[in-house]
């Protein structure tokens, strides 16, 4: 028998399954592997889809979600975790109850509310449940441009608007805020994100805008990379910076998978430390 390797850093995603592998828990697990951590998943839903779109979906029963969480708790030492797609109020409440004693360490919440193109994904009651029950538990939330507008009630036209929105979002309970920049407009040169930390420090990070249809799983990859880096011992600021760079390279270095809206490239290296 081979020698047993040192214990791996362990992380978790609580998210939906995407059958084409481009987003959701599949993108999270690919990111975890790329960043050198052992990833596990609690599935909240499953969608049938491909690069043309999503064509069917089903939610997991709350009892099954709880069973998955219990089995992870009973056996593994999870250092950090994230949530992704939580389809309705019942699932959000189930997850909130399961994690309220913080059994899995640092919590990164990717609020899957509105697509990067502005389409609403959650019904009104589920949207409010997410804010009321999960936001206060989150160490970091990573809303996209449209989600930040919706959550803050501020139309984001200037950098000053984004700064104000971040402070409003922190008033909802999360300790740290990362507002991802708009990237649905081919006229822009850079995608700029704003980060407001718990200690009051803040900063902007940016990478060049890449014109491509291969952007499925971008938000999942960013948030799961942050989880991986924090679990390995990075500060939250360093984890965010690494995740921004890794995600940019994964978008820039396209892979030819699917016939329309393809996945980003989790195989990328590009000396991302």
Automatic annotation (TrEMBL):
Claim: Cell inner membrane is one of the keywords in the record: no
GO cellular component terms, A-Z: cytosol
Single annotated GO MF: ATP binding
InterPro entries: HMP/HMP-P_kinase_dom, PM/HMP-P_kinase-1, Ribokinase-like
Entry keyword set: ATP-binding, Kinase, Nucleotide-binding, Thiamine biosynthesis, Transferase
EC number: 2.7.1.49, 2.7.4.7
Name of one Pfam family that matches: Phos_pyr_kin
Reaction catalysed by this enzyme: 4-amino-5-hydroxymethyl-2-methylpyrimidine + ATP = 4-amino-2-methyl-5-(phosphooxymethyl)pyrimidine + ADP + H(+); 4-amino-2-methyl-5-(phosphooxymethyl)pyrimidine + ATP = 4-amino-2-methyl-5-(diphosphooxymethyl)pyrimidine + ADP
Pathway annotation from the record: Cofactor biosynthesis; thiamine diphosphate biosynthesis; 4-amino-2-methyl-5-diphosphomethylpyrimidine from 5-amino-1-(5-phospho-D-ribosyl)imidazole: step 3/3; Cofactor biosynthesis; thiamine diphosphate biosynthesis; 4-amino-2-methyl-5-diphosphomethylpyrimidine from 5-amino-1-(5-phospho-D-ribosyl)imidazole: step 2/3
Record-annotated Pyridoxamine kinase/Phosphomethylpyrimidine kinase domain positions: 18-265
Biological process annotations from GO: thiamine biosynthetic process
Family (UniProt): Belongs to the ThiD family.
NCBIfam families associated with the record: HMP-P_kinase (TIGR00097)
Protein name in UniProt: Hydroxymethylpyrimidine/phosphomethylpyrimidine kinase
